[in-house]
Design brief:
The relative contact order is 0.17. The chain has one domain: Aminopeptidase. With 165 residues, it is α+β, with helices and mostly antiparallel strands. It is globular. It is built from five helices and seven strands; from the N terminus they run βαααβββαβαββ.
């Protein structure tokens, strides 16, 4: 990798960087795969989202594992797994840090943590633009469907899974 990076557990103080990476990834990387209305509902540009992320990082009701990848003093991306559901929620890399291997490194660390917890597999609702990334990293396609956004809107996705053992 061309840059130094650090993968670590997300902290409450990372909330703004996480939301920024999410918004940039959705509104730039996914713009060719989805209509603007879906992008806006998937990642609304609202200041309240930072507070919501701070709350999630502080209380973590789902007992999820949220990791960030940091480079050049900035949150380059993040990923999350929910062990109780054997679910990889997603990996988001800010487009200015794409194609540098950060997504792959983050995925490997999340998979390592999942294995240590005894998970045999991870399931995923991949966005259309992320299907190739996950396929290249060992996930198999289980079918096509829709992911329900928090607004209730349905967003086309690819159901994928990966055996970890």
């Amino acid at each position: 990798m061309p840059f130094n990076y650090l993968i670590r557990d997300a902290l409450k103080s990372d909330a703004e960087g996480i939301i920024s990476a999410h918004q940039n990834a959705v509104h730039v990387s996914a713009q060719e795969s989805y209509e603007q209305a879906i992008l806006d509902e998937w990642s609304p540009i609202l200041s309240s989202r930072v507070l919501q992320m701070e709350e999630k990082l502080q209380n973590n009701p789902e007992k999820s594992i949220i990791l960030v990848v940091e480079s050049e003093g900035k949150i380059a991306g993040f990923g999350e797994i929910v062990p109780a559901q054997e679910e990889l929620r997603a990996i988001y890399i800010d487009p200015q840090f794409s194609r540098m291997g950060f997504g792959r490194a983050l995925l490997q660390e999340l998979e390592s943590r999942a294995k240590k917890l005894g998970l045999a597999k991870l399931i995923l609702h991949a966005s259309l633009n992320a299907k190739i990334f996950y396929s290249q990293n060992g996930f198999k396609i289980d079918g096509e469907g829709n992911h329900k956004l928090s607004s209730g809107r349905l967003m086309p996705c690819i159901f994928m899974s990966k055996t970890l053992v």
